[in-house]
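User: My instructor asked us to take a sequence, write out its structure as tokens, and then describe one feature of it. I'm not sure where to start. Here is the sequence I was given:
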Amino acid sequence: MGFEIFLAGRYLRSPRKDRSISVITKIAVGGVAVGVLVLITALSMMNGMEKEMREALRGAESDLTVYSMSTSGIPWGSDNPLIDQIRENIAIKAYAPFTTHQALIMGPQKPSGTLIKGIDADREADVVPITFFIRTKSFEFKRDNSNPERVMPETDRLKAQKILEQLKPHLETVTDSSGQERQTKITGIIIGSQLARELEVDIGAFVTIMSLETRMSPMGEIPRSKRFKVVGFFESGIPGYDELVSYVDIGTAQKIFRMQGQISGLTISLEDSEKSEVYKDILRDKIGFPYFFTTWVENNKNLFATFQLERFALGIILTLIILLASFLIVSSLIMLVVEKRKDIAILKAMGAKNSSIQKIFMYQGSLIGLTGTIAGVVLGLAVCWMISSFDIIDIPPGVYVGNRIPMHIEVWQIILIAAVSLLICFFVTIIPSMKASNLDPVEGMRNE
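Assistant: Let's start with the prediction itself. The structure tokens for your sequence are:
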């Protein structure tokens, strides 16, 4: 039976076939290939964006964050029972206190709103790789996509650590208006790179932070304020961070915002970051009120849900390209049936069964789909490699977390795309093949 189908197929694909059929067949192959190529490229790009965003968020946020339901915050000092309770229940690597406050930041030209985060410069880098995001110039250089572990050259790490140390009040030699040098107490601030652009400030410039807290003066109540020197920029490329956040020393923040030794919460780095959700539930059960616990995944679940929805919608839309190309296969086979009516009639007169005729056309349609799918997979992988390896599309540093369009290929997605493409191409051959198999030999020979 297989040899019979082979001979019949060779006969139907004789050199006498019409040129238009060949053109449509090539278009069908190209359409399937383009659909598979675009689907692989688009989904790999979405995967890469989500992967890099996850890594960036993992660098900007800790595994676990502890907050207090009390309006006054969490008591903090050298002897704190909360840390002991946490250590008793889960394995932690490091922890750091922080405070968060809304404030107005005044630059030389204009004001802007900011989220002031008070951090412990000695502990913060142990919990999150903040040094990786510290810059001495706004948009100083592009970020390296091949460095997901946030490994920095030692010189850059020491430079970033020195910037963190400058957040604490310290003495600096300044030259006054009369040209005299004198020692003055300076407090540093690190502000987001996009916020720095909006304020039009650079390293060494001074900004003023104004809090919602007030103090009494001869003119009545006025906002509490303090002058800071910009010692660095924070540049993560994460939307909403670089435009809003500012870092100051936690002790200074407690004084400005009258925290009275309290903190807003704790950031915790875990020995096993993959268990953050499990550990959160453990702490919620063991410690509970008045504390509540969140993870970096929970804090950004809306962002990841958006990625999943976009990937799903994109997959459906681009699958329609393959479906559209499959209709060209239908057209090609129908034209082939019309063109080969006489040949089909001769084969049937020679004893070919309807099932054999049907298989011939199904095999030919499936071959078109297989050729297009293989070509699309190969071209898609090649395009993904080119985009990830070369600066084909230039992304300005600081705009995004990476320095080029991110690509991340999932093997299971490639297999799924190829399988769906082959299935679509196979099923659309059923109608033309049935039409060919049901052809009456007498009708096929009547006009010949």
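For the description part of your assignment, you could build on this observation: The chain is about 50% helix and 20% strand. Try explaining in your own words what that tells you about the chain.
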